[in-house]
Design a protein that fits this description.
Layout (H helix, E strand, L loop, with lengths): L4 E6 L7 H14 L4 E5 L11 E5 L12 H9 L4 E4 L3 H11 L4 E5 L11 E7 L27 E5 L19 E12 L4 E2 L8 E6 L4 H10 L3 E7 L8 H11 L4 E3 L2 H4 L10 E10 L11
Parallel strand pairs: 1-5, 1-6, 2-4, 2-5, 6-7, 7-8, 10-11, 10-12, 12-13
Antiparallel strand pairs: 3-4, 8-9, 8-13
Helix pairs in contact: 1-2
């Protein structure tokens, strides 16, 4: 019997929270004693799209910009997890089986990778804007038409404020298990330790990110009481150069903190990280039972 393969994906062109959700699943299974392997494309990694081991669960072999930011983030957040990147997910699967014998696989961003079998397809939708314009690129912001949701086994609304299914997504959720979750900040990580959320109250903050939803990130910091005095945004997955970082530090000036994301901090050159802080995320479900729906 083969190890279960759980795909985590979406139909939008980014920004639904796949990486923190995948980390949440992996932590759950690692805590249960499972040997978890995460298979990722490795988008925008300098190492390319061949099959590459980012981490064997003990050693991280590649860092950004050689490794893509999201697989490296997962490798650092998940001691014990095997992280393999590559365009051919079947090759990644075979390598993992031969070398590491995982007991469960997580297929990161796998919904459109239909060549590889999976036991469960989990699709994430943004609760506030689940199907965007309803059209794929270049006419909209979807990867495929919303009717593709018929292939999903489980639908999860991220950034949810209630357990109500948005009306525009209702017809795609019929007869499917539906769950709702929120991303919560628990504390800030610094170069030397941690800060509580209240530590940035009324502090002068400069915000930097290279994520799909920079404005949401900034608004969350404002909601925590930060006084945002400046910001710089880069395109999603932007690889930070030394010049980029020095420019940001100069623009931040006398700001109390330069705040970035967990996804971005791994790309900041180590010698500059002491000037940055980032919030650590946790996933909170608003309804129970998702793990009972997954065969493991």
């Amino acid at each position: 019997m083969h190890p279960p393969i759980i795909s985590v994906g979406n139909i939008a062109m980014g920004g639904t929270g796949k990486t923190p959700f995948t980390i949440h699943l992996a932590r759950h299974y690692i805590a249960k004693g499972e040997r978890v392997a995460i298979l990722s494309l490795g988008y925008r990694g300098g190492i390319g799209y061949g099959t590459n081991v980012i981490s064997d669960g003990k050693t991280i072999f590649h860092t950004p910009p050689i490794a893509a930011d999201e697989p490296y983030m997962m490798a650092t957040a998940l001691p014990g997890a095997i992280v393999i990147t590559g365009k051919d997910r079947t090759s990644s699967y075979n390598l993992a089986m031969q070398e590491y014998s995982p007991t469960i696989f997580l297929l990161d961003d796998g919904f459109q990778h239909r060549k590889m079998r999976r036991d469960v397809d989990i699709v994430l939708l943004d609760h506030k804007r689940p199907i965007s314009t309803g059209f794929p690129a270049p006419f909209g912001y979807l990867r495929e038409f919303p009717s593709a949701l018929n292939r999903a086994d489980i639908i999860v609304f991220t950034r949810a404020t209630s357990t109500d299914i948005p009306k525009e997504a209702l017809k795609y959720c019929k007869d499917k298990p539906v769950f709702f979750c929120q991303n919560e900040y628990t504390h800030f990580i610094t170069d030397t330790g941690v800060l509580s959320l209240s530590d940035i109250l009324d502090k002068r903050v400069f915000v930097i990110s290279a994520i799909a939803k920079h404005d949401q990130f900034k608004e969350q910091l404002i909601a925590l009481g930060a006084n945002v005095v400046g910001e710089r945004r880069y395109r999603d997955h932007h690889p930070y150069s030394t010049a980029d970082v020095e420019r940001v530090i100069k623009e931040a000036g006398s700001a109390d903190y330069i705040v970035t994301t967990e996804k971005d901090i791994v790309k900041i050159p180590i010698e500059y990280r002491k000037r940055f802080i980032y919030p650590e995320l946790s996933i909170k479900f608003l309804n129970d039972g998702i793990f009972e729906m997954i065969p493991k």
